[in-house]
Amino acid sequence: MKFILLLCILLISPSISGKEDATVTEELLENVQIEKLHTFAQDIRLVLNPETKNSSSEELLIWADSVTYDWQKGKPPKAEGIESKEFEYAIAITWAEQIVKRHNWLWVKLTLHDTEDWETLAIVSADRSLMILPSASVRESIKGDTEVLIAASNNAIGSSVIPKFAPNSYTSIMHGIKRILPR
Fold it and tell me: What is the pLDDT of residues 30-57, one digit of tens each?
């Protein structure tokens, strides 16, 4: 499947700051934790679509985007014995793995002190200027709160459409990505 470049513009403003005020605490995930995430997501993905076993990173991004879009439109993934939350996490992990692989981002556990010490898994750029909360983004997309922009996020990262942000600013990019061409 050929990857179609999605054009997007970013209108980003920093939403979570990790500066000296210590509003964000980060813990880098260990390889064993990352491997458990991968295995979990792959096992569920293969139940849904066994053909994804040898898919390229590009194809997995398109898969995650398509499944999320279908779910948003009322066609959730279904498999006996698998809860909807597990599908949600599998999609988010599959997407995040591709961003990590393609853009040298890192898996971290963040504690967001401005939001009642909420802990979540995230992926961050090496300098921590950018971040994505994959589970939260997938959940918002499924509910219809935001447009499905999984594939578009990959195209935006590393392009000139994302302005430079200060290191350690932990700027969440997903609410700033806007599709300028219809799906």
Answer: 999 999 999 999 999 999 999 999 999 9
* Residues 6 or more apart in contact with residue 166 via CB below 8 angstroms: 19, 129
Would you say residue 130 has pLDDT above 80? yes
Q: What's the CA gap between 138 and 134, in Å, rounded?
A: 6
Residue 126: CB atoms within 10 Å? 11
Q: Which amino acid, residue 129?
A: S
CB atoms within 10 A of CB 86: 17
Handedness of CA 127, 156, 153, 112 (dihedral sign): positive
What pLDDT is stored for residue 4 in this prediction? 30
Residue 21, classified by CB atoms within 10 Å of its CB into exposed (0-12), middle (13-18) or buried (19+), is exposed
Angstrom distance (rounded) from CA 131 to CA 146: 17
Q: What is the mean pLDDT of the segment spanning 88-108?
A: 97
**Structure confidence at residue 22 (pLDDT):** 65
Helix, strand or coil, per DSSP, at residue 97: helix
Contact (Cβ atoms closer than 8 angstroms) between residue 130 and residue 162: yes
pLDDT per residue over 138-148, tens digit each? 999 999 999 99
Distance CA 171, CA 167 (A): 9
